[in-house]
Write a structure and sequence with these properties.
single chain; five-stranded mixed beta sheet; Alpha-Beta Plaits; alpha/beta; Oxidized Rhodanese, domain 1; 14 strands; 31% helix; 20% strand
Length: 336
Amino acid sequence: MILENKLNNEESINAIKKISAKRLTVSFYNYCQIKNCKIFRNFLFLELKKLNVLGRIYISKEGINAQLSVPEKKLKNLSDFLKGISFLKKININIGIEHDNFSFLKLKIKIKSKIVADGLSANEINLKNRGKHVDAKEFNNLLKSNDTITIDMRNHYESRIGHFEGAFLPDVDTFKQSLPFVYNKIKKFKTTRQILMYCTGGIRCEKASSYFIKKGFKNVYQLRGGIINYTNQTRREKIENLFVGKNFVFDNRLSERISGKIISKCDQCKNKCDSYTNCSNEACHLLFIQCKRCKKKFSGCCSLECQEIYSLPEKTRRNLRKNTKSCKTFSKGRFN
């Protein structure tokens, strides 16, 4: 049996349409010891295929990180299956804020050196000693306190379209960059301020809180379940939601609407907009913000140069991609 998905995107879309079942986008993670990643990876692939689960899973000796699309009627089956695995029995599945049947088109399970790349050596972090988890109510109280420094542990392109009011937003491209960057900004407050962190689903804050505690910070807190769980809790319990804008997600949806406030601008016309797109020129594929008007004007491309390439026949574009790494004008997620 083939332990990977061989369908192309068009075939995958048709397969999803054929089943015609409502799908939910969910996520979960767990830092745990996985001794034989290859055996576990293949076992997981076979079992998830039976449930028609799609998505992306990273496995390493330090744990598992998953973002998935699952048929709504199979969610309990998925939960029961996962909790039947000894090191996942306490797993918390985060249900997405918005759903799309095509958030993921395939099931991909990859073995990595780490489930979250952090650039840290073994003696710089101790995952048994992490920050205190807080729920939405506790988070709001801490966020409003003058004694709290709130830190967005996500990348710049994530916080650009949505974040908590008053949070420190690191201008970084990767989580690996964020740890030393944030430390240098707040190191003088090790014992005098409360450090409150948040990210999309909580996985990055687990490592970040451990890193800062190891560095000598005394009062470290992290948002349980991240922005996703926070939003679901505030809606369920009618708690004030202090997040503004959209929550960036790493699937075909690209974002989830949390509040009606738009805090960013179209990279091309500078009008208010918070809709991300990837440049239609696959040799570029830049992630950038583009409004509907500019999307039509530039054919979903980030520049006239890319639009010109995109207008060429597919065969010509394919040949060009072999020798083109990226658009010369732009860098990752930044419109220079």
